[in-house]
Amino acid sequence: MRVHLVAVQTEIQALPYSSAEGFRQYVLERTLSATQGLPEQEPRLVAFPEAFALPLLFWLDTPPAVREAKSSLQAALWLLRQNWRASLGPGILSPAVFYHLRAPKVWPVYEQAFREAAQAARAYVVAGSIFSPLMDSEPTRGLHTQGKPVYNLSLVISPQGTILGRVPKVNLTPHEQGAFLSRGQPGRQTLKTRLGTIANLICLDAFHESLIEQADAAGAWLVVQPSANAARWEGPWSGDPDQIEGEVWLREGLAKKLQKRENLRYGLNPMLNGHLYELYFEGKSGIYQAGGPLALAHSPVGDAFVRVAVELSDSGPSF
Asked: What pTM, to 2 d.p., does this model score?
């Protein structure tokens, strides 16, 4: 079976996030463009970057004062002040109440846009991620939060537009810890699909051996790594300023993690780019096999699609 893998590299723009219809059209256009020209009957998997939907929390149906704030915290506090009565409802005495305040408005926009895009493109879609409490829906309560913790959450959606998994990030960066996020629990990162078992390891998670080992042991053939790397690609590495960020990413990332595995064969790494308040992201999106990239974006900034067709054997890996 031949499967088409597509990494959607995206530079943040304010306009698509300012309205539900704008976001829906943006996601649809990006997904259809990512799959344009692919053979109709051959399966495809499209992955968006980490934090792709995060700007919705700040910019969906909000005034210019929020977009023009000097920091994400300042923007969040402005919205909390304007909605202070509603912010008392969840009973959360920290700035994390911001996510609970915005989730009922933002989550349906995020979910529905990607469900429609997956159906339109007949693709499996990894819908980047958003910062949110776990959301669920049932007839008597409708859409509601499940618990107080807030996670970096990623949706995996089928070509039929159904949600296959709500995947939390396990290992958080200092930025995420400072944003009042909670660690997700291991165990929800692998999903069985008609394409076989795949793993969704959000950014830093794919650098951790334990989660790679779990994905491999679960029989996953693919690791999707939605990423938003808050560093200059050609700048100093945060772990050692004498090394270059992008060089370390390519040397220590998926190409290395896929080596000598029982089942894992490929990695798909879409990267976010651009400014979100005080944060700035860069990175070359890529598709990997053990030992090196199969394809990389030409630039660590701006929009790009990285596409590779891979062959999967029904008989399993060869030795």
From this structure: 0.94
